[in-house]
Write a structure and sequence with these properties.
16 strands, alpha+beta, three-stranded antiparallel beta sheet, about 30% helix
Length: about 525
């Protein structure tokens, strides 16, 4: 329309011209205008030609396609059988409805793995189903007993679902099911590097960058599979030297050059600290934690002296002597194992755990506050919108930055069912320096973490404060629980100070002159 208007104005001016000179001037302008239009039209057509999207040709499918015609996955040689063997459904089929009839989407899921994986691996599936990795009974019972439970549960699925919450224990049950069990074998994760399979597939299929990279089953899981769950300031992340940032936005550094936040593949940015000496030597998680310990209802406890005071006794680890030197045989290398020779090992081995001297740093999330919010209020959480839970983060972001859905729901990680109430998390202090020590049940000094220093609060949908800072009633002092940090290194000059300071408090005789 603009071009037509220009021509119209030109011809009015041309006919109103009174002299030959003026008419000649308008004629020259018309010629130049036409040339310019032809040039611009050509450029426009060329630009449009360059911007035409390249549409890929749709693959030509046979009349009755098979599973792999639509899902071109490749299986390993030990599982090279029909897709329907595990997934059911029909292949070939005329359409997707017919192909997906009675389909089992996740055949390795705990609900069906005995009928699928168990066809060939009955003993392994039975054992793993009752292992600590499947039941999470240690973690569940530790929290429940601290809040007053009188009986231990066999597995996480036994945690009660309460229609009405009237006690701190019932509130802790809700916390466990909906916030704490994000790494349970039934849940398939949320962030790019926590997404994983369920059941057997959680360890035996490779997932990276938000999806499954291959349908070839792994006989020996790689560290990447372990880190899908063992992240976020739990043992495993420390093996790689990772320590989570605090959650408040003041701790969100480093930022990119454009001010954008760094990627969060595990949900929270991490500080990069020193890695474990065994990681530096090239050992993977399963070199010290083989399947015989991970998938057993009663696993053998792997101890430091199994390797470093090798006596030739049978061990779950593949240790032998080569040229008289104890050697750990792994899939990638044979590693000579240094034996204990320093006199301090003999003197204090019954008084202090190895990590007391050899842990370079440790996890110490002091004062963990967990706040269940049923009220539709989100602005107060903007500064700690990074939560290590995609559900919580998404709810906060949408309701602050967009016209969202103001209903705070969060799923049960065992059933997938959504329930009212959103569990937020925060800390009083996050530090890794100066590992904390306490006594274990035998009175032996160990590195400890304040994992039971918990504070539970609940505000209901009427904005009534139902529970305010509910604390464990049966927890040890400061909530300290012994654990084995995977941050091992040379003891260096630190061990004398750690032993002297702590063993004196335990009334042990000391002789630290050597």
């Amino acid at each position: 329309m603009a071009d037509k208007a220009g021509y119209f104005i030109f011809f009015i001016n041309f006919h109103q011209a009174t002299t030959l000179q003026t008419k000649l001037k308008f004629t020259i302008q018309l010629i130049l205008c036409c040339c310019l239009c032809i040039y611009l039209c050509g450029c426009s057509q060329e630009e449009n030609k360059q911007e035409e999207p390249q549409v890929a040709e749709a693959p030509t499918l046979p009349e009755n396609p098979t599973c792999t015609d639509c899902h071109p996955h490749r299986l390993d040689k030990n599982h090279a059988f029909a897709c329907t063997t595990c997934h059911m459904g029909a292949s070939p089929a005329k359409n997707s409805d017919q192909a997906h009839a009675n389909l089992i989407v996740k055949p390795a899921h705990p609900d069906v793995m005995m009928q699928t994986c168990g066809k060939c691996h009955e003993a392994q599936v039975t054992n793993s189903h009752n292992s600590l990795h499947f039941t999470s009974r240690n973690e569940v019972n530790r929290v429940r007993m601290a809040f007053g439970a009188t009986e231990e549960l066999e597995r996480a699925e036994d945690i009660p679902i309460h229609d009405t919450i009237t006690t701190p224990l019932a509130l802790a049950d809700d916390l466990l099911r909906r916030r704490c069990l994000q790494c349970h074998i039934r849940y398939d994760g949320d962030y790019s590097e926590t997404l994983r399979g369920t059941g057997c597939a959680a360890c035996h299929l490779n997932f990276q960058n938000s999806g499954m990279t291959s349908h070839e089953f792994l006989a020996k899981p790689q560290d990447n599979e372990c880190l899908h769950c063992h992240n976020s300031n739990f043992v495993g992340a420390d093996y790689y030297g990772r320590y989570d940032h605090d959650l408040h936005w003041d701790y969100r550094t480093p930022y990119g050059k454009d001010g954008s936040e760094a990627p969060r593949p595990y949900g929270v940015n991490t500080h990069q600290l020193s890695t474990d000496i065994h990681k530096q030597a090239g050992l993977q998680c399963t070199d010290c934690h083989p399947g015989s310990t991970l998938m057993s209802p009663s696993p053998s406890q792997i101890k430091c002296n199994d390797c470093h005071e090798y006596s030739g006794k049978p061990s779950p680890l593949n240790i032998t002597r080569k040229a008289g030197t104890p050697t750990l045989i792994t899939a990638t290398k044979d590693l000579a194992i240094p034996q204990l020779r320093h006199p301090a090992h003999k003197k204090y081995k019954d008084k202090a755990g190895c990590a007391v001297c050899h842990a370079v740093w440790s996890f110490s999330d002091q004062g963990t506050h967990l706040f269940r919010q049923d009220a539709e209020e989100y602005d107060d959480w903007e500064a700690i919108s990074i939560q290590g839970s995609y559900e919580v983060e998404h709810e906060i972001y949408v309701n602050i930055n967009q016209e969202g859905y103001p209903y705070p729901f969060m799923s049960d990680k065992l059933t997938g069912q959504g329930y009212y109430g959103l569990w937020h998390k925060g800390f009083e202090l996050r530090r890794w320096e100066f590992p904390v020590t306490c006594k274990d049940k035998e009175g032996k000094l160990q590195i400890c973490r304040p994992i039971l220093n918990l504070h539970l609060t609940w505000v209901n949908d009427e904005e009534d404060l139902v529970f305010d800072n509910a604390r464990p009633t049966q927890a040890p002092v400061k909530g300290l629980v012994p654990y084995t940090p995977h941050t091992i290194g040379k003891a260096g000059p630190f061990y004398k100070g750690r032993l002297k300071e702590n063993l004196e408090l335990l009334d042990y005789p000391l002789n630290l002159e050597k």
